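User: Let's play a game. I give you a shape written as tokens, and you guess the letters that built it. Ready? Here's round one.
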């Protein structure tokens, strides 16, 4: 009996792991189906409602629908809906990686000042036309946002390595938020009427000015970052056990963090540069994914991206339906939706 016991235990573990794996795959499939449904609903709903079949025909067989439907679906609503999905996926993936490498469940591009830093960089380009010399004007906002976001993340990492405390890191992140917001407010005070209008509208977070080049750029950035994130998934999972344990397993922790920081900055800065400040997605999305899937980053990272995309897609639908004939800035909607979720997460963490 003693010799067969290890075999029985191994078989039981294999069966249990298979059940967990199937459950995670079903969760991924369910989220993907929900995301596609919300994407279709986002295109259908608006000042003029379309049937699902008309939307699908306009996208895949436009010759079978009238010209007005083609223009509304393909040139207006489709880039709007796709950008919501891409922004949510980018911010939630960035938040998931940031929470892991900093070992801080409250870390996100918004709460730790990364989005505020990117906003300040974009504001410099909008108001003062300042940026890195030689950068084309069409890329000045995106480049500034990336540079300031990357600098803020490096600064956060330096603080984390020096203090070694979660509370100190959160407090420093809050200080960054207030500091960059104050500087953005100063630029608003100095801005001309046209620049002020552009900056205020941009800072609210809106999808109304989304274009196909912006969708393609953010889509390319997400497709570039996601494979590297998945490639580092097992290392990120091991990092949750602690830096020392990860180092004993042969993981270069410093290199892993630097690569994650580069991806976080690229994702957060590009998303913020195109649509403005979007709050809470990078914080709430990873927490929901963690509750659904656990800490296995092979699933946690893609599920975080899908969860953030789903929340943003739902917010895009709500932004068009709250006030008939008016499309609210999506940053306002995500903040209104995110605050209750954020408070619920705080209360749950306090009880645990």
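Assistant: Ready! My guess for every position:
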């Amino acid at each position: 009996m003693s010799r067969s016991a290890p075999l029985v235990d191994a078989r039981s573990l294999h069966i249990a792991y298979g059940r967990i794996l199937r459950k995670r795959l079903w969760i991924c499939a369910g989220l993907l189906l929900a995301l596609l449904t919300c994407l279709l609903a986002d295109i259908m709903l608006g000042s003029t409602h379309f049937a699902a079949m008309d939307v699908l025909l306009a996208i895949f067989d436009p010759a079978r629908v009238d010209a007005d439907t083609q223009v509304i679906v393909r040139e207006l609503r489709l880039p709007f809906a796709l950008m919501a999905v891409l922004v949510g996926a980018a911010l939630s993936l960035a938040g998931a990686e940031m929470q892991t490498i900093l070992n801080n469940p409250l870390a996100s591009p918004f709460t730790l000042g990364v989005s505020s830093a990117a906003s300040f960089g974009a504001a410099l380009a909008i108001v003062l036309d300042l940026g890195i010399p030689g950068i084309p004007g069409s890329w000045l906002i995106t480049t500034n946002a990336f540079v300031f976001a990357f600098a803020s993340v490096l600064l956060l990492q330096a603080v984390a390595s020096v203090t070694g405390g979660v509370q100190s890191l959160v407090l420093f992140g809050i200080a960054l938020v207030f500091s960059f917001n104050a500087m953005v407010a100063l630029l608003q005070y100095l801005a001309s009427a046209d620049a002020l209008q552009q900056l205020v509208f941009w800072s609210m977070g809106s999808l109304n000015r989304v274009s196909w080049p912006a969708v393609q750029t953010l889509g390319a950035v997400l497709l570039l970052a996601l494979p590297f994130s998945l490639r580092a998934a097992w290392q990120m999972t091991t990092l949750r056990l602690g830096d020392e344990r990860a180092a004993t397993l042969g993981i270069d922790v410093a290199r892993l963090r630097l690569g994650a920081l580069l991806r976080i900055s690229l994702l957060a800065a590009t998303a913020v540069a195109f649509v403005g400040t979007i709050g809470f997605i990078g914080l709430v999305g990873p927490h929901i994914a963690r509750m659904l899937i656990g800490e296995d980053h092979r699933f946690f990272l893609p599920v975080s991206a899908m969860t953030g995309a789903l929340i943003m897609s739902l917010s895009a639908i709500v932004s068009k339906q709250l006030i008939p004939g008016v499309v609210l800035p999506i940053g306002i909607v995500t903040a209104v939706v995110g605050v209750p979720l954020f408070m619920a997460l705080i209360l749950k963490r306090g009880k645990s």
